[in-house]
Every structure is written in C-alpha cells, then in structure tokens.
Amino acid sequence: MTPIERLHRNLEASIQAKRDLMQHQAALAIFAKAVDATVACYRQGHRIYIAGNGGSAADAQHLAAEFVSKLARDRAPLPAEALTTDSSILTAIGNDYGFEHVFSRQLKGKAVAGDMFLGISTSGQSPNILKALEQCRDMQVPSILFAGRDGGPAMALADYSIVVPGRATSTIQELHIVLAHTLCECVEVAIFGE
After folding, report:
1. How far apart are CA 79 and CA 170, in angstroms?
2. Between the CA of residue 123 and those of 38, 83, 95, what are the distances in Å?
3. Domains (ranges, CATH) in the chain?
4. Vertex 151: Cα angle to 148 and 152 (nearest 5)
5. What's the whole-number mean pLDDT along residues 24-35?
6. Quick one: which of 112, 134, 127, 128 has its CA closest to 49?
7. What is the C-alpha end-to-end distance of the chain, expressed in Å?
8. How many CB atoms lie within 10 A of CB 37?
C-alpha cells in the first residue's frame, strides 16, 4: 500500500465513523445532556476535571486549555484542569498507591460536589479511569465518558457515556477531539452568547 493509498484509507475510515456518529441518535442525545450538565456546572461556579492516558491524556490537556484560554472567541476563562500534567503528583500516587489511583486520588483531594469530571478512554477499560468514575460516584461529582468500541465497564459508571464508532484507536481519538471541541463551543455559546 502506498502512502497515498494509506492516507485515503484512513480518511475514508474517519469520514465513515463521523457519519456513523451523526446517525447515532442515542449518543447524540447523551452528548446534549452532557453539554447541559457542563453548562450548569459552570453557571454554579464549579470546574471540570479531565483525564485520560496516552493520546487521551494529551486530549485532556488540550480541552482544559480550550476552557481556560478560549476556543474560538475572546471571553473570560472557565476553570478546567487536566489531571494528567503534574509529574510529582502522578509519580507519588503511582508509587505510593498504584497507577490505577492517579486520577481518583486527585479527584478526592480537589473536587467538590457540583464539579464535573470527563474521562477519556478509547477502550472504556482503563483502570485509572474506572477508579476515577467510581470516586465521582462516591463524591456526587457528575461524570462524562468519551469512549470507543463497546464502551467497556466505564460506560456503566459514568453519568453521560458517549461511545463513538470506529475500529482504530486513531479514529476513535479523532472523534473524541470533535466531541471535546463541540462541548467547549456549546459551553462558550451558552455562557457568553453567540
């Protein structure tokens, strides 16, 4: 397969997955509810915490930056934090308690009822995302999940689970970033107007 053929194949897979998501009415309805919950969180003076592993960790940081800085227009910052960025916290918790606790322990120490958590996991099976979602339940912190494949066990733990189509991790991650940008855009419009 030539590089151009490979690119065409990947573009077609991405386009098809996006078309499939556009037709997935249940996922779209859950996404709309997640947007409403995030808007309510911000209107009540709370914040959103975001976490993922690998490329999803980068997506968590990317989305936190969009909320705190801006997405498409000049506006006041919205409080958001990626739980993936502090190497001292991550390594201390990983060393002392185990890597599966690196997000849940941060939520326990930082989040309050009314805050939001967004977990990003292409498989829905990441142990540290599962523990974080369980911690959210214990603390009455509403949670959103961006997942792929069948949603894994994380799907049952989150309040708003959006499971995107696509076979390849890369395609799932592409859809997650579309969801993240759209979430931020919807929040910006709801709070600051068009």
Report:
1. 28
2. 23, 19, 25
3. 3-192 (3.40.50.10490)
4. 125
5. 97
6. 112
7. 46
8. 16
Of the candidates 106, 111, 144, the one whose C-alpha atom is nearest the C-alpha of residue 128 is 106
Q: What is the pLDDT of residues 52-92, one digit of tens each?
A: 999 999 999 999 999 999 998 899 999 999 999 999 999 99
Q: Which residue has the tokens 């915490």?
A: 49
Q: For residue 81, what are its two tokens? A: 């934090």
95 contact partners, CB below 8 Å, separation of at least 6: none
Closest C-alpha to 14, from 183, 176, 185, 160: 176
pTM over 0.85: yes
Q: In sequence order, which ranges of 24-150 are alpha helices (DSSP H)?
A: 25-43, 55-68, 87-96, 104-110, 127-139
Return phi, psi of residue 103, to 5°.
-100, -40
CA distance linking residue 2 with residue 93, whole number of Å: 45
CA distance 52 to 75: 27
Q: Which pair of structure tokens corresponds to residue 41?
A: 């969180």
CA–CA separation, 14 and 36 (whole Å): 27
Q: Can you tell me the distance from the alpha carbon of 75 to that of 78, in angstroms, rounded to the nearest whole number?
A: 9
